[in-house]
């Protein structure tokens, strides 16, 4: 496997890890996936640093159950220590008054999103520098 392919896989893992942490309400873990200076375009706001990311995520409803299904992730070199990325995401979202009992009844997905990402290597590790999305279906 080439070094380029390894780096592409590493960036794809950063994106997958970010959304896995989000689904688990591990907001510090989400913030860990971003570079020191970043811009995450999320729900009409631009989150530009770790503190803003954590503060925004802590506003989520306590018993929000969301599954972000990330698929068709493509990462391509964009220069020294830089990658660009694209992915689709299917989202299942439901609010409860208490923690849900699994498994939940089957429902249609709530949305399909396309994501655009830019990654940089910071202190030897790949991190998200830019993240934005377009809602395709709701």
Could you walk me through the main structural features you see in this protein, from its secondary elements to its overall organization?
- The structure is a single chain.
- This protein is of the alpha+beta class and 138 residues long.
- It has helices at residues 3-23, 27-31, 50-57; strands at 34-42, 45-47, 64-79, 82-95, 111-122, 125-137.
- It contains 3 helices and 6 strands.
- The protein has a 6-stranded mixed sheet with strand order 2-1-6-5-4-3.
- It is globular.
- The mean pLDDT is 97.
How would the blueprint of this fold be written?
Elements (H helix, E strand, L loop, with lengths): L2 H21 L3 H5 L2 E9 L2 E3 L2 H8 L6 E16 L2 E14 L15 E12 L2 E13 L1
Parallel strand pairs: 1-6
Antiparallel strand pairs: 1-2, 3-4, 4-5, 5-6
Essential attributes:
138 residues, six-stranded mixed β-sheet, alpha+beta, single chain
User: How are helices and strands ordered from N to C?
Assistant: HHEEHEEEE
Q: Roughly how many Å is the radius of gyration? A: 15 Å
Main sheet strand line-up: 2-1-6-5-4-3
The share of residues in extended strands comes to over 45%
End-to-end separation = 39 Å
Question: What is the gist of this entry?
Answer:
The chain is an alpha+beta fold and 138 residues long.
